[in-house]
Amino acid sequence: MPYPSQIDADSILVAARDAIELEGVSNLSLNKLAATMGVKASSLYRYYKNKTALLQAINQQTVYQLFEALAPALEHGASAVERLTHGAKLYMDFAIANPQVYGMVFTNTIDDLRPNPDENVQLVLPYQQLFAEICGEAHSLAALRGYLALLHGYAMLLLAEQLRRGGDLQQDYEAAVRAYISGWQR
Q1: pLDDT score, position 44
Q2: DSSP symbols for the chain
Q3: Is the dihedral of CA 140, 58, 46, 50 positive or negative?
Q4: Mind listing the pLDDT tens digit for each residue in 19-58?
Q5: Is the pLDDT reported for residue 4 higher than 60?
Q6: Is the dihedral of CA 17, 19, 23, 24 positive or negative?
Q7: How many angstroms separate the CA atoms of 16 and 101, rounded?
Q8: Other Cβ atoms closer than 10 A to 65
Q9: Which distant-in-sequence residues (6+ apart) come within 8 Å of 105 by Cβ?
Q10: How far is the C-alpha of 27 from the C-alpha of 121, rounded, in Å?
Q11: pTM strictly above 0.70
């Protein structure tokens, strides 16, 4: 059994995320997580005072990882439309690759588990600026909110396997994103 000093906050987050992806958030317990990591549960409490603190940290980390995954979109293509369209693809790729933690973050209604809103605003500002290029500063926040709602809604329907009527789902998603963005163009 490794010494507690061989674990840290990051390794606990990785192990907890892996456990959630395998078994779902409802099956996560600090005792099971500690056993998986080969340490005593008390070792985890040195880093996270309870399951709520751990889940909040996972939620914030997931938001950071989502925006890290989206970062190439800011460099992709010459126009704001191209960058937002590419961002939509990267967003869906992230949701599909991380279905349990993605769902946990974006369907959460418990205040103590919510990621830090001030930090999240900083993460999303570059995308609002892209919309400002498309529709002007006055409408950029409304456009951003709709864009994120479209991406999230489509991701949740896809993850819940609700889009079963045939056709190319990726192609339909891209068409919906392009149509949405073009609706905001001046």
Answers
A1: 93
A2: ---GGG--HHHHHHHHHHHHHHH-GGG--HHHHHHHHTS-HHHHHTT-SSHHHHHHHHHHHHHHHHHHHHHHHHHSSSSHHHHHHHHHHHHHHHHHHSHHHHHHHHT---GGGS--HHHHHHHHHHHHHHHHHHH-HHHHHHHHHHHHHHHHHHHHHHHTT---S-S-HHHHHHHHHHHHHHHH--
A3: positive
A4: 999 999 999 999 999 999 999 999 999 999 999 999 999 9
A5: no
A6: negative
A7: 10
A8: 17
A9: 59, 62, 63, 115
A10: 31
A11: yes
Instruction: Kindly state the tokens that stand for 30.
Output: 């600090």
Place of tokens 């994103």: 177
Residue linked to tokens 């892209």: 130
Match 């990267």 to its residue by tokens.
Answer: 90
